[in-house]
Amino acid sequence: MFKNITDFIGKTPLIEAQTLIKNPKITLLLKMEGHNPGGSVKDRAAYNMIRSALDRGEIDKSTKLIEATSGNTGIALAMIAGIFKLNIELVMPENSTKERVQTMRAYGAKVTLTSSDIGIEGARDYAEQKVAEEGYYSFNQFANDDNWKAHYKTTGPEIWKDTEGKITHFVSAMGTTGTIMGTSTYLKEQNKNIQIVGAQPTDGSKIPGIRKWEKAYLPKIFNPKKVDQVIEVSETEATEMAKRLAEEEGVFSGMSSGGSVTAALKLAETLESGVIVAVICDRGDRYLSSLLFE
């Protein structure tokens, strides 16, 4: 029986890193989210947010949709909105990579670029203004429970099954925090001793997909009680690890994945043994016009 492309969201591979871990008692597994049809982990949340809003009757084909994004969520929303014949405007900083903008437009979305000086916060403010003044509907991934529930329903169970319940530590970049919130909730229900580790940028570092939010912009879905440890990663560390992943492991990914794996290796240095799962958030091909792989 033939399937819709949305049937291929999730069920991504979990592979073992071959060169990065020197301690034979520690296994590092990489959750390959770039294998989603839209190329990133955000396919999961985007599908769940759109499907749930449609099922509840909150949106239909006449609804004007808008969402602020740093890139991957926008691509996923553009792809899935196109499948459901929905009109969506995506708002992102003007310094976003050309590949991301072109991909969203290829899926049929309208893309609005805001000043890079005000970053994703400025894009969020623009979208919120459109909602307040012009009747747009925003999924507001930063405050939408359907974001983290996507990972509670899919990412967490996949990891638990694929590790046969042997996972001891889960490491994820923290942006909207949907991935870490949903996965943490599920894994802790299976084994409360599993440690949940979030990667954040050091002060002054800019890593797409990883943020240290000011209090006013902190995602409302974020619950600090669901994260056992936060490890800071510098922009340089995330960049170098993305390059190492490509060269040493054959894993072509972006800076947020480099940040996630950097945090996992810092964690591994403190452990005698364990099974660590780190999220590889997306594919590296959407960063080729940036300086990441120069």
UniProtKB/TrEMBL annotation:
Residues the entry annotates as binding pyridoxal 5'-phosphate: 72, 175-179, 256
> Where does the source fall among the domains of life?
Bacteria
- Record's catalysed reaction(s): O-acetyl-L-serine + hydrogen sulfide = L-cysteine + acetate
Gene Ontology molecular function terms on file: cysteine synthase activity
Which terms are listed as keywords in the entry? Answer: Amino-acid biosynthesis, Cysteine biosynthesis, Pyridoxal phosphate, Transferase
Q: Might you give the EC number(s) for this enzyme? A: 2.5.1.47
Which Pfam families does the entry mention? Answer: PALP
- Decide whether keyword 4Fe-4S is in the record: no
CDD domains xrefs = CBS_like (cd01561)
Return the broad EC class: transferase
Pathway annotation: Amino-acid biosynthesis; L-cysteine biosynthesis; L-cysteine from L-serine: step 2/2
Give the Tryptophan synthase beta chain-like PALP domain ranges: 5-282
| SUPFAM superfamilies from the UniProt entry | Tryptophan synthase beta subunit-like PLP-dependent enzymes
| Similarity field | Belongs to the cysteine synthase/cystathionine beta-synthase family.
UniProt cross-references to NCBIfam families, sorted A to Z: cysKM (TIGR01136), cysM (TIGR01138), PRK11761.1 (NF008735)
The name of this protein is Cysteine synthase
**Gene encoding the protein:** cysM
